[in-house]
Amino acid sequence: MPMTCLRRIVPLWAVLLTTLSCLAQSQQRTLPARVTEAASYDVLIKGGTVYDGTGREPRQTDVGIRGDRIVAIGDLQNARAGSVVDASGLAVAPGFINMLSHSETSLIIDSRSMSELKQGVTTQIFGESSMGPLSREMKDRRVAQQGDLKYDIVWTSLAEYLTYLERRGISQNVASFIGAPTLREYVIGLEDKPPTPEQLEKMRQLVRQEMEAGALGITTALIYPPATFARTDELIELSKVAAKYKGKYIAHIRSEADQLAEAVEETIRISREAGLPVEIYHL
Question: How far is it, in rounded angstroms, from Cα 83 to Cα 109?
């Protein structure tokens, strides 16, 4: 799904220019330290302390924006703009990325996501238990479990859910991993049993479909059922498919207490045998 690079937000403590991907694009061009001509921009952010996300020392300067692109960083004192933001005394930084967002349902109700925006978050990454694929039974179960937030489930696949959010109009960029427990529930149900060869192949096929549609990889939360029912070999097989699309595996690991070392070793094994990068939540 298309992503808009620019999000113009002015929270109390920072001015957020852009997501990290947009910043990387802007760094590919040479930007002047001083712009003397009376250039024109859609948005001009003046006098802020710019943290560009590269680790370099911040500097007090101006930023010129046209459309959804940063086109100038430097002394823009002679520039004109349709909108001018005085960032004096504030930080100017890339929008922050929430790598473990649980706003899947709240974004349906409040597309502005003000609680995240006011903390500087411009990109939300979903995971653990994804919003698709969903069977009819899974949809009915989720509707019956709804609390204060009421909504219709009109999608089936994870890709359809993300498209649904996009069409509704949301304030932020979003992306999602495929939840291994969601796949398990879709194919096997909620029982504590291993998949048959046919069921495992069905799960692999669902991973292929979602990865081709833009999913980021496989995620799970192995201390919660039905995720905890998945054996290591099952997770490796699903991750092997994601690896073919340069996906990643990210997990709330099987133990964060007495068996922490074993849980970390399991995660490393999945990485090695599936051939993909891994990340551990909450470590």
Answer: 30
Rounded CA-CA distance 224/94 in Å is 34
pLDDT in tens, 4-62: 333 233 333 333 443 333 333 444 333 444 444 468 999 999 999 999 888 899 999 99
Question: What angle do the packed helices 260-274 and 232-243 form, to 10 degrees?
Answer: 40
Percent of the chain surpassing pLDDT 90: 78
pLDDT at 129 over 60: yes
Closest CA to 68 of 41, 90, 38: 41
CA distance 277 to 283: 16
The Cβ of residue 212 has, within 10 Å, a number of other Cβ atoms equal to 10
Which two tokens mark 128? 């653990």
Reported pTM: 0.80
Q: Shortest CA distance to 156 belongs to which of 186, 177, 118? A: 186
Helices and strands, counts by H and E, the chain: 9, 14
How far is Cα 271 from Cα 279, in angstroms, rounded to an integer? 9
Backbone angles phi and psi of 63, in degrees to 5: -135, 130
Mean pLDDT value across residues 71-97? 93
Counting Cα atoms < 13 Å in the Cβ hemisphere of 232 gives: 15
